[in-house]
Amino acid sequence: MIPLLTALIAGTAQAADITALPPAMRGDVGLAYGVKVVPDVLLEDDTVVGRRRAIDHTITYSGTIGLTDIFAFEMALPHAASSRVRFFDSYRMAYEPNQGTGTAVGTDLLTSNPEIHGTGLGGTRFSFAVTPFSEDTYASRGDTITWLMRVGYQLPDKTNIWTFDGGDRGAMDGASGMVLETAFSTTNRMSQPYMGLRYDKRMPVRMDIVDKNGDIAAKKVQIKPASTVSLTTGLEIELHKNHAFANGLGTSVSLDPYARFAWRSAAEIPSGVYLPSVLTMTKNSLVLQGETSEAWAGLGIKWRIIEYLDWKTTAEMGTPFAYKVEHPYEVSTGMGKLSWQVGTALTFRMRDPIFDPPAQ
């Protein structure tokens, strides 16, 4: 079995997806959909005071054009088809005079299940990516790794989860942002191991907090969304490849097991978004949300249907670690709740020789 397995998954020198760029004057156009479900409990002094479930459905439209063989320009437009936070079995927040703040321990159960729901487009992301070392482009000089560097900027979006616009709530944080990313991959006889490090810096954004009735609840509030640092590592394994398929257009199937760890910074956000009940004295005022981390393990399957078309499906399971939801209240999330997300992406790869320059 070992020789057979080796023959099946041995690959040629080609960058893993995380470091791959289209050649000069070629491009990629992509459409991706993902759903993420995060259930957790709300605890105050080890007492359960509520349960919640966050469900996000996201569509991303993307495009990449290779300006040279090692330098590309990228655009992406995220669309939150639905972002929902549902609360269950939650208790009313009541004022505790001895502590000078609120408590949900020993209070009445809420008669309804509150929820926060938003939808809308996020800000367009622009980025440039370069691979100064490349197994593909610089194979003749002996490069054995591909090193990618990326810098990007995301525009702010008017609709966001903190406020209403025309009676509707958005789904994203409304802020502009910077992205810095680096990734490495290499090819050996068995697989293509890779590692990537990404920093998403979210900028402060000033806005009026408007309620669903159109009334301004707070003026010129400066919100500071959380920034994130994530580390991803994995390996791509080629299970099948047939160069002769479809009159030479070729087809292949690869497997991509990976793991991801992310750290999220503290944030300053309006009170009452991520708790089912808050005191009137804090509602819509800025509160500090604690920093947290999360760990995920995933598996991707990519089918290169033909040379010009990729279809990839991924599934992940993981858990966010506990964090304090709002600093005026002693309410934190629980540990150990299993979360999951699945996604699928279709990528059209413009690689046809029709794009080649005329022969001299």
Describe the structure.
With 360 residues, this protein is mainly beta. It has helices at residues 2-9, 245-248; strands spanning 27-44, 47-66, 71-88, 94-96, 101-103, 115-121, 125-133, 145-154, 164-165, 168-169, 177-186, 192-202, 205-210, 216-223, 228-242, 251-264, 267-270, 286-289, 292-306, 309-320, 332-333, 339-350. It has a 12-stranded antiparallel beta barrel. A two-stranded antiparallel sheet has the order 4-5. Strands 9-10 form a two-stranded antiparallel sheet. Mean pLDDT is 88; it is low at 1-14.
Supply the helix-strand structural class: mainly beta
Arrangement of strands in the largest sheet:
1-2-3-7-8-11-12-15-16-19-20-22
Kindly report the average pLDDT value: 88
Number of strands: 22
What is the makeup of the main sheet?
12 strands, antiparallel, barrel
> What is the global morphology?
elongated
Distance between the termini: 50 Å
Series of secondary-structure elements, N-terminal to C-terminal: HEEEEEEEEEEEEEEEHEEEEEEE
Low-confidence regions: 1-14
Cα-atom radius of gyration: 24 Å
**Total helical segments:** 2
Helix content: under 10%
The proportion of residues in beta strands is over 45%
Any chance you could write out the topology, listing elements then pairs?
Blueprint: H1 2-9, E1 27-44, E2 47-66, E3 71-88, E4 94-96, E5 101-103, E6 115-121, E7 125-133, E8 145-154, E9 164-165, E10 168-169, E11 177-186, E12 192-202, E13 205-210, E14 216-223, E15 228-242, H2 245-248, E16 251-264, E17 267-270, E18 286-289, E19 292-306, E20 309-320, E21 332-333, E22 339-350
Antiparallel strand pairs: 1-2, 1-21, 1-22, 2-3, 3-6, 3-7, 4-5, 7-8, 8-11, 9-10, 11-12, 12-15, 13-14, 15-16, 16-19, 17-18, 19-20, 20-22
